[in-house]
Amino acid sequence: MTETQAPAEQEQATRTTLLEARDLHVSFASRGRRARAVDGVNLAVGAGEIVALVGESGCGKTTLARTLLGLERPSSGSVRYGGAPLAYDSRALRAYRREVQLVLQDPTGSLNPRHTVYEAVAEGPRIHGLPDEEKVVAEALSRAGLRPPERFFHRYPHELSGGQRQRVVIAGALALSPRVLIADEPVASLDASVRGEILALLLRLRADLGLSALVVTHDLGLAWNIADRVAVMYLGRIVESGPVEQVLTAPRHPYTQALLSVLPESPERVVLTGEPPDPTRIPGGCRFHARCQVLASGRAEEAGVAAKCRSELLEVLPAVPEAQTACHYAALQ
Amino acid sequence: MTTPLEAAEPAAAQAAGPGDERPAYRGTLRYAATKVGGALLSIGMVIIGTFFLFRTLPGDPVRALAQGRNMTPEALDLERHRLGLDKPRFEQFIDFVTGTFRLDFGTSYEYKRPVLDLIWDRLPATVLLAGTALVIAVGLGVWQGTKAGWRPGSRFDRFSTGTSLIFWSVPTFWLGLLLLMAFGNGIGPIPGLFPTRGIESVDAPDGFAYVVDVGMHMVLPVLTMVGVVYAQYLLVMRSSLLDEVGQDYITTARAKGLRDDQVRRRHAVPNALLPTVTLVFMRIGFIMGGAVTVEAIFTWPGLGQLFYRAVKVPDFTLMQGTFMVLCVSVILMNTLADVVYHVLDPRVRSA
Amino acid sequence: MSLLELDDVSVTYRIASGEVPAVRGVSLRLEAGAALGIAGESGSGKSTLAMSLLRLLPGDARVTGKIRLAGEDLLTMKWGRLRAVRWAEASIVFQGAQHGLNPVRRIGEQIAEPLLVHGLAKPEGARKRVAELLDQVGLPSWRARSYPHELSGGQRQRVMIAMALACEPRLIVADEPTTALDVMVQAQVLTLIKDLVASRDISLIMISHDLSVLADVCGQLAVMYAGRIVEYGPSHEVFHDARHPYSKALAAAFPTVGDPVSRMAPKGLGGDPPDPMQLPGGCAFHPRCPVAVDACPTLAVDLWPAGDRRTAACVHVKEAS
Amino acid sequence: MTTLAWTRRRMAFGRFWSVFRTRRAGVAGLAVLVFAVVMALIAPLFIDESVTSVLHDTGRPYSGPGVDSVIGRDESGRSILELIWWGSRTSLLIGFLAAVLAMVIGTVIGIAAGHFRGWFGALLMRVTDWFLVLPSLVTALVLAAILGGSMATIIVAIGVTAWPSTARLIRAQTLAVEARPYIERSKALGAGHWHIMTRHVLPNVAPLLLASITLEVASAIVTESTLAFLGVSSNKTSWGTMLRGSYDWNAAANGAWWYIVIPGLCIVAVVMAFTLVGRALEAVLNPRLR
Amino acid sequence: QDPGAGKKIVRMGATQSVDSMNPFLAVRLISTAVHRWTYGFLTVPDSKTLRPSPDLAESWTTSPDGLTWTFKIRQAKWSDGKPVTADDAAWTFNKIMTDEAAKTANGPAVENFASVSASGQDLTIKLKAPQASMLDNPIPILPKHVWEKVTDIANATGDTYPSVSSGPYIATEHKKDQYIKLTANPGYWRGKPKLDELQVIFYDNPAAAIVGLEKGDIDLIGRLFPPDFQALTGKPNIEQWNKQGRRAAYLQINHGATTTDNKPVGDGHPALKDPKVRTALHYAIDKQKLVADVQGGLAKPADGSIVPPMYTDFFWEASGDDKITFDVAKANQILEEAGYKKGADGVRTMPDGKRKLEFRFSIHTDTPVEDKLAEYLTGFLKEIGITLTTNRLDSSKFTEETGVTGLFDIAISGWSVNPDPEEVMATHLCSRRPDANGEGGGTESFYCNPEFEKLYQDQLKELDRPKRTEILKQMQKKLYTDAPVIAIYYPNDLEAYRKDRITSITSIPEGNGLIYGGSGYWPFFTMDAKATAASGGSTGGGSNTGLIAGIAAAVVVVGGAAIFLARRRKGAADERE
Ligand SMILES: Nc1ncnc2c1ncn2[C@@H]1O[C@H](COP(=O)(O)OP(=O)(O)OP(=O)(O)O)[C@@H](O)[C@H]1O
Ligand SMILES: Nc1ncnc2c1ncn2[C@@H]1O[C@H](COP(=O)(O)OP(=O)(O)OP(=O)(O)O)[C@@H](O)[C@H]1O
Ligand SMILES: [Mg+2]
Ligand SMILES: [Mg+2]
């Protein structure tokens, strides 16, 4: 078992915002309809901060992550890096992508089976024309925990284990010395036993390099394991966000509560029925009201917000580090 | 606990009533409409392409019409005028397009009859020949492909795949010539069993005997076409069956206690057939190519023969008309294939 | 007599480059109405074991040992009898629900198929039964007319469960029924399985690599490593107090939210998963084991008693006892 | 570094070969193919164009296999063996060049159509589909008839009608490759269109191309012979024109079976060899089939 | 039951298809042959002498100036019972003279007509100039009452059956590119033919036609290609018919193509303007070898010009000093002396050293004989330091380049000569060259020689046959020595028929003449055959064989299906995983 370092208590308020989404909307044409996959998101990742983005399948997490990387263009709103809005000409994008890097869920798929580890890691430096390619690659590999790096240079992905592959992918990102890492479900396809290793690596990189990270996941345990802050997303919008300890131990939004309640160890579970949300048909009022257990159980009625829940739109949550939630019912307490 | 959205969904489906697939049906219609639109576009491209292709022809079509006979300059001019060749290129193009839409493909130099009439005369024979060959080839290919794919590596598999590959490598005309030599003329112990030309005897009898007569005439040409074509159906059926056999739902079917042949007949084959069905239609153009050769060898009075003659003369009006008709029919077949596939495969239907 | 008895079951795949011992000498016992969870990392032989129960393995797999279902030996059974046993006595829910259903047939037909094949119902009755089954798994009956792709992943998995229930078997094998499903849907499906098993006295074998899920649903837990069972016991005990270092690592991989110990401290297991064709000698886990001792590479491992109704295959357990 | 890369490449080839070797049909095909190609290449060392002349070294027309000529003579008394040997050069050359032409067009269009989404890709796909449904033999015949029969014309006529299936295949493969996460990763690393097309897509479609080009050569050889038979030929002695000759000069009725059977068998053997090798390559190289 | 049972039917194979059944339009040999069998003409070549003899015209008279001809039309009936009158003939000629479309097939034959009129059975034709070949008029006389209803000749197919005929046969059925059925005309004025039915069956594939003859699917096939003919050697029941033909094959040489206003056209090689070069070419050609190898020995090497030896009257053959025999050394010597020196590559150049002697040889696409000829000629000319490259052209382009625009050096050519050679002679007249606009024409050689012109005019006026023959021979000699065309050989007429079916046949001319290849209907009028046996027999794999084979096939299919099903059952029993 590898050791992990618990970071010193950090002053979150003093962190400067590095990457930010401002009132971001992304929509797709889907079977003749518009799927509003991301529907008004404000989110900030501070320097050296690890933010977890959690939510159900199809709620727009991946789309948000891709948009942050400039792989998808927002239909409105903007992505800002270092305070300036992201420009979409190829030059600016390329420069941006030295700073912000992506790690995907499926390490096997993320590596071209015809490229050796060396080529895979060197791809970024080559695209950006970095000098001292071999040195950069070796360094990135050893940072990612593949030591000694030379042993891995000429291996092909199929000669590596899943965890090693994910390390190669991370090394590929590190080779460009980015400042932000966006990881979309980085451990979802890995074996449970390997999972901890990779997460520990992320923590170590943050400690060593001051790397910020946005980790997209549907696993609350992961957020608990490594994130400073968590944002809960539902149907294209962030419905609750704040420091991990606060949000995960005392959730305020019924959706977060439901998510936490279905974890195996929880005493009483609230299983939401109904289908996964469909971004082509976002209900009016609170977007969660159709599945909301608080509304269904009549507690909202008692509190007198039921009508509001059904008809009144909620404000888009601002990108602040403090705990906040978008819920008519929670607003009362 | 039903949510408004969930409630709305089954309501819509129930409104369609049992047995009625309205949403899917409407989807199919829309799909068919776009496909037909695409086909029309393709046909338009065929028309334009044909015009320019045939306008690049060297030589003077009027003189071709004269076929080396002595014509006065006036007569040539008159003919030129009659064919509209004295007009500017653009006007010719407009004439050509409107003519084509009115199904007026001009008059054949060779036959001195409207090209459309000729094509219309020849169509049934080709449909008969190519249709029969196609049905047999598909039947044979699918049957052998199924058997081979179900037990890959078996003796039957190796034998049938090997044979089909050999046939696949054989040029159509060569196979036709060999068959003509062997079964038309008779070689050694093989008697000359089958007629070698045409679709019927000159003194064709009536009734059932006529059917037999035509059937006898069809043997060699159909055999030739089937021989060359069936391999691809076999190979596709085999590989798509192999694909299906690896799927989990086949294991599920086995786990359910189905007999081996039930698994094959109910699950594997119907699913594997889908790609084969598309291929059948997709490769209609290939069949047409085969028809040209086979009809030329066996004097089969079909479109292929007409086209072959047009190429040999060369009779450009006829060639152009036949070419367009062949292309358009292939395009239509493909469109049909798309729609059929769409109807057959529920996965595509709602996509 | 137990419903299912496995006695020294081994499965070997023959492939071009040699033999893959996927399952190596597994012995298990399952009482009627009980639920057994099998956990283990990818490639440890869980699915192979599950498939061997109904002789569904491909032709290149060789199974040895004894598998007895209600006293009958499945491995020597006649084909006709085996077909009758399949689904009617024991059914199976596969790993990927989207692939376990025939994509071009309506789900109603597919659920009804085993009923008709086993002669348990006439077409009319089968239709009624399908509606009933769909209702039991919480799907509206008009869904019978849908095609698999028209359903969400969770719904498909429920259809698979409905199908598994169709012939009212005595045993259901669920091979990773919730992997690749969303948290919320996963909870729905697990609740459904739990309820069904509890209410009908059906035995369940559930496979997963998520120990926490298994601990939740099953009474007993078996942890597999490299084709062997390395720990066996009541699930909560195994989960919270594992005796085998591998089980420990596996359990630690699933942190409890709110537990300050795991906050900012993800735990994992170093090293690479074993290559089944080149298994280390002795205890197969020793190269990755944090508490390995000198004896491990040569030790003849066996499941040693490790407490009340518990066994584990670790030298430390042996020494302790 | 480079030597290492070389050894790795050699090893990769060795791996490929060890898999390919297990496919007996493919190996047999390869043997035939190598034989045919080598024979065609070394032909000028032994014979020259004059073997196709009707005036030099001719024997009795339609004399059968014997001491005088190993496998008989044609209608002008030329040796069939020599004609086949010399004609293989034309057949193979046309086959290869037409296939290469089809490949180049097909690859460029296929990759572009798969890579560029939006109207450009859609347009390319439309054009490809259009060409795909055209009855290729018929189109080739029309093209050859209009342009006149020379070697270049025949190659162009075959190449221009054969590329769409390649384009289709390449496009499908491109789409499959582009859907892989490593493309996304590469984009996130800052890669442009060119980088993705040449570094990721092309290497991944290349094996498929290799397989498909062998299959394409096979069909080009058949098409060439068919075109020759239907009366548009390259005016050079090829197996197709020989068969045409046997037909024109009614070798069948004159009992000169060797004139019909042997060139035909050569076509079948070589086409079959290409097909077997192509299929074997496909099976070994195409991950989907593996 | 076979409907043909008990009838005398002869089936003729044809590898050429009918272009049109409308006699105004039909130009193909097969179509004109069918029209010869179904329609009457003014005159018909005599079956023995090939001289014009009465057909529908019973008798005729000429005015002393040779400009007015009066034909007496015989009392005969159309097959629909209407009488044949001079009006029918007059209408036919007038139609061709007035309707552009009707000129398609036989326009030139009425070019010289000033007017045509009829009164009763008397037909009067007034000519613009005297015309000795008047009695070889190739126009079938059509029934006015049928054809006058046709307004658009250009688009009339003539496919109305039974046709209204006055010849020995009536066309009763025609399936395009499949077959034509002709039945005997019972009211034919010479009497009903011996055959009941004559069928023309089309083959695209000559090999299939030969197979058909061997099998008895067809009884006769005309105009055989040498290898096809040779293939029939020694086959039982087959009579091979190998006689002198009416065709001459020659090379057309661009010796300086000009238009009617004597302006040069085209891009012919300048060397060919030199008669010495043309003579050298002539010496270099081994006609014997061509005959032996290209025609399988079934032709006669040409020592004359464009009239084949079959026409013994008109045939002229070179002899003595005029005669050019194959002699490479001589050819080389001629070229050498004329200053065409060989270069280092063995190719000669023009005396001024500028241009090499590299000629194009224009042939038709898809003609194996011409291809083969080209191979040989290339070889021959190489021996005398001349490079020949083959230029294959489709027929319209070929006609244009070798007949109008003059874009050729040497081209293949040939002519099937009618009993009167006037027509073929006319193709070498100055007036046949294209005009300044590149229109018109019909020249075979771009030849324009005043002496030749004069001879032509003389023969037109010369009504005394022996004298006219002499003039025609002089014209041939002129062509031979001037060499605008070089005749290479006269292909034999090759035909074959089944002895067991056709019991008697008279060729034209009788004895050593032609059957199908000849002009006129004699062979087919006089032909006799065995009656078809009552049941099936040899005809076309008759329905009986068909039935048997069909039943056999059905048995095989059913049996196969049964075995298949049985095996499936068994297969279901032994299952596997
Ligand atoms: N390119 C696209 N075209 C159309 N719809 C899209 C596209 N990409 C995503 N969507 C839709 O947007 C919604 C959000 O998708 P997204 O992939 O961002 O979800 P996610 O939260 O990452 O889900 P998961 O947990 O399953 O990965 C989904 O409903 C999806 O169908
Ligand atoms: N058909 C086969 N042929 C050869 N080897 C196989 C085959 N199926 C499985 N194996 C091998 O057997 C071992 C066990 O596989 P199995 O699928 O049972 O693992 P698993 O525990 O179910 O893994 P997962 O969690 O990934 O589903 C693996 O090493 C696998 O590579
Ligand atoms: Mg996602
Ligand atoms: Mg598994």
TrEMBL record, chain A:
<keyword id="KW-0813">Transport</keyword>
<comment type="similarity">
    <text>Belongs to the ABC transporter superfamily.</text>
</comment>
<dbReference type="Pfam" id="PF00005">
    <property type="entry name" value="ABC_tran"/>
</dbReference>
<dbReference type="InterPro" id="IPR003593">
    <property type="entry name" value="AAA+_ATPase"/>
</dbReference>
<keyword id="KW-0547">Nucleotide-binding</keyword>
<dbReference type="InterPro" id="IPR013563">
    <property type="entry name" value="Oligopep_ABC_C"/>
</dbReference>
<feature type="domain" description="ABC transporter">
    <location>
        <begin position="19"/>
        <end position="260"/>
    </location>
</feature>
<dbReference type="InterPro" id="IPR050319">
    <property type="entry name" value="ABC_transp_ATP-bind"/>
</dbReference>
<dbReference type="GO" id="GO:0005524">
    <property type="term" value="F:ATP binding"/>
</dbReference>
<dbReference type="InterPro" id="IPR027417">
    <property type="entry name" value="P-loop_NTPase"/>
</dbReference>
<dbReference type="InterPro" id="IPR017871">
    <property type="entry name" value="ABC_transporter-like_CS"/>
</dbReference>
<protein>
    <submittedName>
        <fullName>ABC transporter ATP-binding protein</fullName>
    </submittedName>
</protein>
Automatic annotation (TrEMBL), chain B:
<dbReference type="InterPro" id="IPR000515">
    <property type="entry name" value="MetI-like"/>
</dbReference>
<dbReference type="InterPro" id="IPR045621">
    <property type="entry name" value="BPD_transp_1_N"/>
</dbReference>
<feature type="region of interest" description="Disordered">
    <location>
        <begin position="1"/>
        <end position="20"/>
    </location>
</feature>
<dbReference type="Pfam" id="PF19300">
    <property type="entry name" value="BPD_transp_1_N"/>
</dbReference>
<comment type="similarity">
    <text>Belongs to the binding-protein-dependent transport system permease family.</text>
</comment>
<keyword id="KW-0812">Transmembrane</keyword>
<feature type="transmembrane region" description="Helical">
    <location>
        <begin position="36"/>
        <end position="54"/>
    </location>
</feature>
<protein>
    <submittedName>
        <fullName>ABC transporter permease</fullName>
    </submittedName>
</protein>
<keyword id="KW-1003">Cell membrane</keyword>
<feature type="domain" description="ABC transmembrane type-1">
    <location>
        <begin position="123"/>
        <end position="337"/>
    </location>
</feature>
<keyword id="KW-0813">Transport</keyword>
<feature type="transmembrane region" description="Helical">
    <location>
        <begin position="164"/>
        <end position="187"/>
    </location>
</feature>
Automatic annotation (TrEMBL), chain C:
<dbReference type="Pfam" id="PF00005">
    <property type="entry name" value="ABC_tran"/>
</dbReference>
<keyword id="KW-0547">Nucleotide-binding</keyword>
<comment type="similarity">
    <text>Belongs to the ABC transporter superfamily.</text>
</comment>
<protein>
    <submittedName>
        <fullName>ABC transporter ATP-binding protein</fullName>
    </submittedName>
</protein>
<keyword id="KW-0067">ATP-binding</keyword>
<dbReference type="InterPro" id="IPR050388">
    <property type="entry name" value="ABC_Ni/Peptide_Import"/>
</dbReference>
<dbReference type="GO" id="GO:0005524">
    <property type="term" value="F:ATP binding"/>
</dbReference>
<keyword id="KW-0813">Transport</keyword>
<dbReference type="Pfam" id="PF08352">
    <property type="entry name" value="oligo_HPY"/>
</dbReference>
<keyword id="KW-1003">Cell membrane</keyword>
<dbReference type="InterPro" id="IPR013563">
    <property type="entry name" value="Oligopep_ABC_C"/>
</dbReference>
<dbReference type="InterPro" id="IPR017871">
    <property type="entry name" value="ABC_transporter-like_CS"/>
</dbReference>
From TrEMBL, chain D:
<dbReference type="Pfam" id="PF00528">
    <property type="entry name" value="BPD_transp_1"/>
</dbReference>
<keyword id="KW-1003">Cell membrane</keyword>
<dbReference type="InterPro" id="IPR035906">
    <property type="entry name" value="MetI-like_sf"/>
</dbReference>
<feature type="transmembrane region" description="Helical">
    <location>
        <begin position="256"/>
        <end position="281"/>
    </location>
</feature>
<dbReference type="Pfam" id="PF12911">
    <property type="entry name" value="OppC_N"/>
</dbReference>
<protein>
    <submittedName>
        <fullName>ABC transporter permease</fullName>
    </submittedName>
</protein>
<dbReference type="InterPro" id="IPR025966">
    <property type="entry name" value="OppC_N"/>
</dbReference>
<feature type="domain" description="ABC transmembrane type-1">
    <location>
        <begin position="88"/>
        <end position="278"/>
    </location>
</feature>
<feature type="transmembrane region" description="Helical">
    <location>
        <begin position="25"/>
        <end position="47"/>
    </location>
</feature>
<keyword id="KW-1133">Transmembrane helix</keyword>
<dbReference type="InterPro" id="IPR050366">
    <property type="entry name" value="BP-dependent_transpt_permease"/>
</dbReference>
<keyword id="KW-0472">Membrane</keyword>
